[in-house]
Amino acid sequence: GAVVSQHPSRVICKSGTSVKIECRSLDFQATTMFWYRQFPKQSLMLMATSNEGSKATYEQGVEKDKFLINHASLTLSTLTVTSAHPEDSSFYICSAWDYFTDTQYFGPGTRLTVL
Amino acid sequence: TQLLEQSPQFLSIQEGENLTVYCNSSSVFSSLQWYRQEPGEGPVLLVTVVTGGEVKKLKRLTFQFGDARKDSSLHITAAQPGDTGLYLCAGAQGTGKLIFGQGTTLQVKP
């Protein structure tokens, strides 16, 4: 299957700081990427759809000013958690959508801990 | 709101037992995907089913897509401790966006 990478895999930051997470599609060009949040032993919760060259589409209840998404190229999307607080601590996962197979390939996830 | 109901959400069985996980929806999907996720890792695609009534086998795992493309099941035969993990079903509607089920946490005890 296609490879999607995420960086960093783990990050610990102080409350009030901003953290950027990168998601790269290594095998194919992805016009659309997705960002998810996952709580322990729960399913994935879609946060936003990242479209190359245009604004991201956020799901209801997700603060767009807090979770900034940039999809500057066909292989890279970034999620910036601004002014992070302890309640933002979570496992964040991205995926890249392969249009031709209608399949999402997931990254390995980023564990964010806000102290 | 489109929903994909996945059951059971938790399953703890002994090695060698069989199990079935179900995903049901009132919506029609263009395809349905099954993923397995280990703690601290991203979901890994197991299979994609596309055609109504389709059955796919992956070693001891059997996946079925309902005739109306609204439901799916995953059957594991003779479960092993290595099958332990979170199983996720997800329905696609051709837009790239996936509708996820609640997930099934499977624990197989030796």
Tell me the layout of helices and strands.
The complex is a heterodimer of chains A (115) and B (110).
Chain A: E1 4-7, E2 10-13, E3 19-25, E4 32-38, E5 44-51, E6 57-58, E7 67-73, E8 76-81, E9 90-98, E10 103-106, E11 110-114
Parallel strand pairs in A: 2-11
Antiparallel strand pairs in A: 1-3, 3-8, 4-5, 4-9, 5-6, 7-8, 9-10, 9-11
Chain B: E1 5-7, E2 10-14, E3 19-24, E4 31-37, E5 44-49, E6 55-58, E7 61-65, E8 71-76, E9 85-92, E10 98-100, E11 104-109
Parallel strand pairs in B: 2-11
Antiparallel strand pairs in B: 1-3, 3-8, 4-5, 4-9, 6-7, 7-8, 9-10, 9-11
How would you explain this protein's 3D organization?
- The complex is a heterodimer of chains A (115) and B (110).
- Chain A has 115 residues and is mainly β.
- Chain A is built from no helices and eleven strands.
- In chain A, the strands form two sheets. In chain A, strands 2, 4, 5, 6, 9, 10 and 11 form a seven-stranded mixed beta sheet that branches.
- With 110 residues, chain B is mainly beta.
- In chain B, strand 7 (61-65) and strand 8 (71-76) form a beta hairpin.
- Helices cover 0% and strands 54% of the residues of chain B.
- At the A-B interface, strand 5, strand 9 and strand 10 of A face strand 4, strand 5 and strand 9 of B.
